[in-house]
Write a structure and sequence with these properties.
By secondary structure, the chain is of the alpha/beta class. It has one domain: 2,3-Dihydroxybiphenyl 1,2-Dioxygenase, domain 1, CATH 3.10.180.10. It is built from two helices and eight strands; from the N terminus they run βαββββαβββ. This is Glyoxalase/bleomycin resistance protein/dioxygenase.
């Protein structure tokens, strides 16, 4: 059997709200409840399982490879939600997108300051 990522847990102060925000931004179906998780299903059968955490939450990074045709609608939703966004992971280029490797990409922060990224070309693919 090949080895593939199946799921990861995303700690959140409000799992339902965070999962719904990500699902909205990415244009995914409404998150499903599974036990104490709010689950966002991706197209490649990987899930992000949002779970409650009551202490300080360490910011993590989650990168999503999307189609070129998906970039504009996703970027529009990022701006409609009033989320901060950057062209770089160090947050030094606010309110910009990048064109790395011949594609487009943008970083944005979720409700718990996890740094989310959408790119249309994998790194090294340009």
């Amino acid at each position: 059997m090949p080895i593939s990522l199946n799921h990861t847990i995303v700690w959140a102060s409000d799992p339902g709200k965070s999962a719904r925000l990500l699902a909205t931004i990415l244009g995914r179906p409404t998150p499903m409840r599974f036990g104490h998780f709010e689950v966002v299903q991706l197209d490649n059968e990987v899930t992000l399982d949002f779970a409650a955490w009551t202490g300080p939450i360490q910011s993590q990074h989650y990168g999503f490879l999307i189609g070129e045709d998906d970039f504009d609608p996703i970027f529009d939703r990022i701006r409609e939600e009033g989320l901060n966004y950057w062209a770089d992971p160090f947050r030094r280029r606010p309110n910009e997108i990048n064109r790395d490797d011949g594609g487009r990409g943008v970083y944005f922060a979720d409700l718990d300051d996890h740094l989310l990224e959408v790119i249309t070309r994998p790194y090294g693919g340009g």
